Task: structure prediction
Amino acid sequence: MMTVKEIFETMDYGTAPESAAEALAWLVEGSDRFGHFIDGKMTAPATAPGEVFLAKNPATGEVLAHLTQASLGEVDMAVAAARKAQAKWEKRGGKARAKVLYALARLVQKHARLFAVLETLDNGKPIRESRDIDVALVARHFYYHAGMAQLMDEELPGRAALGVCGQIIPWNFPLLMLAWKVAPAIAMGNTVVLKPAEYTSLTALLFAQICQEAGVPKGVVNIVTGDGAVGEMIVTHPDIDKIAFTGSTAVGRRIRQATAGSGKSLTLELGGKSPYIVFEDADIDSAIEGLVDAIFFNQGQVCCAGSRLLVQEGIAEDFHARLIDRMSKLRIGNPLDKCIDVGAIVDPKQLERIEALIAKGGMEGTVHQPCPAPEGCFYPPTLISGLHPSAMLMQEEIFGPVLVSTTFRTPEEAVQVANNTRFGLAASLWSENVNLALDIAPKLVAGVVWVNGSNMFDAAAGFGGMRESGFGREGGWEGLMAYTKPKGKTTTVKPAMAHSKPDTVEVLNLDRTAKLYIGGKQARPDSGYSQAIYSPKGALLGHTSLASRKDIRNAVEAAQSAKGWTKATAHNRAQVLYFIGENLSARADEFAQRIRDLTGTTETKAKEEVADAIDTLFTFAAWADKLDGAVKPVPMRGVALAMNEAVGVIGAFCDDRPLGGLIDVIAPAIAMGNRVVAVASEAYPLAATDFYQVLDTSDVPAGVVNILTGSHAELAKPMAGHMDIEAVWSFSCADISKTIELESAGNLKRTWVNFGQTRTYAARDWLAQATDVKTIWVPYGE
Amino acid sequence: MGTPEMTKADTKVATSGTHLPQIHEPRNPGMALDLDVIRGVQANTSAIERRCATLPGRRSVKKDHQAAWLLKAITMIDLTTLAGDDTPGRVKRLCAKAAHPVRADILDALGMGALTTGAVCVYHEMVETAVAALDGTGIPVAAVSTGFPAGLSPYHLRVKEIEESVKAGAKEIDIVISRRHVLTGNWQALYDEMREFRATCGEAHVKAILATGELGTLRNVARASQVCMMAGADFIKTSTGKESVNATLPVSLVMIRAIRDYHARTGYRVGYKPAGGISKAKDALVYLSLIKEELGNHWLSPHLFRFGASSLLGDIERQLEHHVTGHYSAGYRHAIG
Result:
């Protein structure tokens, strides 16, 4: 024990522990044993070995509570309770639900310290973070979504709840991720079955208690505990309508595969390797301080951690020296200490994982650990400098307090290195030059970009990834899309059959060869095969090419080369769409006749399809420059811009309206700046092939629209499995929805498939599918 | 980054283990005006504010440590009176308080020997009185100077004022800079002015008051800090206490980062003095942790850090008595200064 006089000389901080007494008392109140929260009450805790698992304090290894591993029967009970409660909860109306969410927000605030201490005990994160960040954001999320419930009936009249949502959350922000999942779901009238991560269930169980106090009707929120096996029961449960998952990319991929073809909606918020770019004109000291929040926050166990440092070469040496100096001042230890920056790693298994990764890849660079870690489940803040993009640690997510770094020369190279990753969750960039910052931010492939900052979150601002960081947004209006669906009924798609070859073929006119349309040119199919297309009356209308996987490869290459279209101004894109409409209009009669020849429909209906197609082109020409982004009212001096960006290259299988099916996918996609690889109606492809000439005469740049013909069933797999396609849509009558969802797991592309059902979508629905919302945070002030 | 013509001051001060050095720093001799440094200065206001807003939540000093830190803070206070109605009697009373800032029984209970404040800070007319009153205590007298607070009296008189105060026995001179030189970007003029003030101070240490509340931007604060250090300031100080905005944490962060940068380039340690508006013990702890975090323990010494404050001491005394007795204290239980 040091005397005051000694401390006066050393000026040490000493310890400042937050008391755990109240939280431990709460656990004792529950006899340290917990069951699940199902249908409004806690179930009896399990006692049999094998059904019990332990909640431990990672900082000390002490057992905090005995928890119950859910059985299939218990998951069934939870889902049944959620199902039973759902219709009534939805029917109560947004305004009634708002009051419940408001009560939840208030109760979180009332029990704020208890939640914070319990979180720190269970997870190992510093009490400062659980107190000042996690719990504060949780309350904010419920307040915000109380407001969304209040406004739903007026502002989202066309949307309805999805039903029962299965939600699986990670251990890094246990209560915050619960809030991100539960608040929007129940605000929109869904009911939920939520599974916390097995390392960190305690705050979810405390939340169950406040659900009772807030008047959440029984069955609306159900919480089951357990490991991945329980997660799997939820994922594969037949009576769940939607799965929302936050966690690792590997598990997310498995969930994508497991839910493929089930008809469940899916949103995934997965891993990342987010770049942290420092330009030479940045405020260097602030950029270094920002790294403390980027990579050492929550021991680096943050999906959007700024874990990849990219420093402009000229300042790199100085920057690294100052960074190491700053790291040496970090304090690591007892997470309940109010004077601690870095707490415990969540579990010894995670610690081993981090240690193994660094042992394997650290030698590719120079490892700096200027702040030693205490004994136990702690890992020291680490910088590994001198790595290159090819190094394993520059590509793999470490999920620990480990920063890897490299350098760049020019802004262009910074973007290139930043985007050289399978992930696309977040990015930070530091520069005092507004021109540079606002130029670079949109070029980064990431759902969230922080300019001169890091790890800023708010309920009003969308959060979510691109590429293998997942899809879907949480927060803001865009986040509600993940918990609602358009109202209205769907009908089963009538399969369109190609007309078979008659006994005697009637040859109408000179042979016209319909090839594939790739990169603005007609191209023969790689397979060398063609197929004859007959009218219902047996006339040979022409031949179409049978595209194969290689033609998909070529079409995607062409589409990826046409990036200029995405950069073109919205006005310019609108003009092209209008021009396509104008040129189609000039040939309206010819297309109507073609439709009649192909399908045998009436003249009126055929003309209607052409007129509709022109109308669709005009509609999305109109929208091209009107899908406004937003400025989110986040609690800071600055702006959080929600920008609607093109998804990239979209692969689409068209429905069997010969012209309408094609135009429906092309128009919204290219209006938003995407490039398309469309597969025309399999039964009636010739209107699409006629359309090449319309495209040729309408100033559509090569590669923006690529059209293939052939078997949907054969093309679905290579299309959905292609790693350089960002989204696949299907309105096909062929049974390819499951294949597409399954194959999309490769690069976790977005999918939008019909499951053999058809419906009319509003323009807004098309536009939402044709865009990703990127949130760019720009704090300002001089 | 470096200034090759400058030899780095070899810090002869031993930084043995955890104990603070009790030796005077080698004085900052200044250097040639380096406009590249001034032009390269960046200060991102939002990021700086975030750092300051979260610091109190990141660093917490409790119990004995808090008491020790508060005692340390006392030794860094420039106990100040800068009022138009100052009289010799008033100044003598203040000096007596500076020599005995904490009740002896409280110090005894804390196991501490006698301590004093860092200095007493007065206007020129009160320097002689203060010097006499503090004779034998070892407490230096600081004089505000150069047409304090606005610094707009004739230049030769401002220089003369320094001379007079030094002659009267002031060991520290708190000069005010010409804000207009900063606001118009006339760095050479600022440098020349500061250079002459420093030279005129002779052996007396000079603190450069930037009047940050009147400099418009944090970037200007950073630039002015650099220029004054290049011109040989021993300390840089935020405010006169007379501006509408005085010491703030963001301004402090900018200035101490400038000090760190200057030290990295030259090897010389320049002191820091936030002044005005710091009246709570809790605030003092936050300032000390900011210094400890950004500059290190070396700066936690009256040689390199001072609080310009008049009412801070009273709050610290109450907190110390609370620490000793476990009961909240009252102002009248502590002698006034």
Summary: Confidence is low (pLDDT under 50) at residues 1-7, 10-22 of chain B. The beta strands of chain B are 77-80, 119-122, 141-144, 172-176, 205-209, 235-237, 271-273, 307-309.
